[in-house]
Amino acid sequence: MIPDHYWRILRNWYWLIGGIALACALIAAVMLPALLNGGGSGHSSSVTLGVTRMVSFSGTTAAGEGDSEAMASYTTSIAERGSSPQFLSTLKDTLAEEGVTLKVDPSFTANEGLFRVTIEATANVPNDARVIAETAAELLIADTTAEEGRIALSLTSTSDQQETELLARLTAVYADRLDRLFELGESDVREALSGLVSRGVSASLSADYVRLVEDLARLSGDPQLTVLNTEAEALESQLAEISAARRDFSTELLQGGPVSIVTPAETVPFAPATTLKARDAAVMGLLVGLVLGWIGGNMLESMQLNLRMKKHREEEWDTSLSSAGSLFSDD
Hints:
two-stranded antiparallel ribbon
């Protein structure tokens, strides 16, 4: 059974309770979906980059060849570079020049198994999302290519210096070997050297002459000549390795850039995973409004009751005073 006090609240303040409930329902239906959903609806654009090779000071590694772990690590480093504050600052400035404001930083996800980097950008306008994703991809490709160019320049300079030093040392070894052969003074040595001298001293001695000098060193049994032959072979081998590495390095660089776009920008609309409908918000607001209205009605009813009780006590007090005055007047 409902107490009389509650019936009085409903009877006296139903209009207040209903008004607050309707107002809360209307406000909730309009405001809550926009606030809770946060304007989450928008557009997402993604670009996928493929890492084709890695140029480092230890050599060139192409996708599908060489050390796959090194390529996977390089792919991750490219994705991390895109998320760095320096790169994001450059991206923001570049987009500002194109009239696009970067509100949410794009994400860079590395797929180490496929050597892929996926760039995903979000914006309220589809064109802005596409521009952000494409600009981020272009900047990341340019940054990676510039880094490769710096490494290539350093490697070329280093290999040129090494080659110059090796050629100088090899020329000196050839000269020492010739001097030693002349010192032996044997007729067969002089005959063999006549053809050798006519060809000149260079890093490209024919295999026949090399074998001839080796045979002469072995037949003569001279230890110094044997040491010079061994050193010459080592120097020639190092020069051949440098030449092959430079040739392979140049060939790799001619086959496009280190990073390229595999999947161009794809832009799609999206909405947050959970959305609050206006109807549900109105129901929530109605319930909250009923509670607030009931609390307000209860407070007002209590205030009125207190006022009535106070007025009643004042009337009783006035009556008592009047009665007392009458008694004194009769006396």
